[in-house]
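Tutorial sheet, problem 5. The two components below are modelled jointly, 229 residues in total.
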Amino acid sequence: AQKITQTQPGMFVQEKEAVTLDCTYDTSDQSYGLFWYKQPSSGEMIFLIYQGSYDEQNATEGRYSLNFQKARKSANLVISASQLGDSAMYFCAMRPHYGGSQGNLIFGKGTKLSVKP
Amino acid sequence: DADVTQTPRNRITKTGKRIMLECSQTKGHDRMYWYRQDPGLGLRLIYYSFDVKDINKGEISDGYSVSRQAQAKFSLSLESAIPNQTALYFCATSDLGGTEAFFGQGTRLTVV
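Model answer (structure tokens):
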């Protein structure tokens, strides 16, 4: 069965420091996509970054980078230079590209990040 | 205007009532989804539709039904609401092989 595991229910980071949010996934598919979303207290789901399973380079979007280790089936999110506005829930998700559930996002349970001033 | 619009944004309803949550999108995507979010459980898939004539049950479809009225519109119904359906509901769209899934703003539903 396909599954996303986020082992850190909550994390604290000092403002301006970097933080890594862990994500491991379980799939037998060879082709899939990995996503990270941010959910602030207002509730909306904000797309942060995407990594395709065949992408050789780690994805980066501004202060966000995805540390993709395919053999370990991990897709950790790294936020550099944390800001107070980064305090939110963060969700890792996977989308298989083939099979009956193709296109469906499978989510982890999330990590609550708190940035301390 | 938002790419994916959900209405209503907030709703309080009584046990046993029928309620419909609506979703419309301007992305031109064929694929639309309804997710439910409960604290500590992440997002779980209720129903998904790959086109107007293709509707599929997700992980937690019991107690829910959907209608895909057009490519751009996908509604979720609770036929007889119960308190444990109190949750945050999201509509989302994507295209095949897309690298991004677009979410609506969410609907906070409370069943009393």
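Marking note: The radius of gyration of chain B is 13 Å. Full credit if you identified this.
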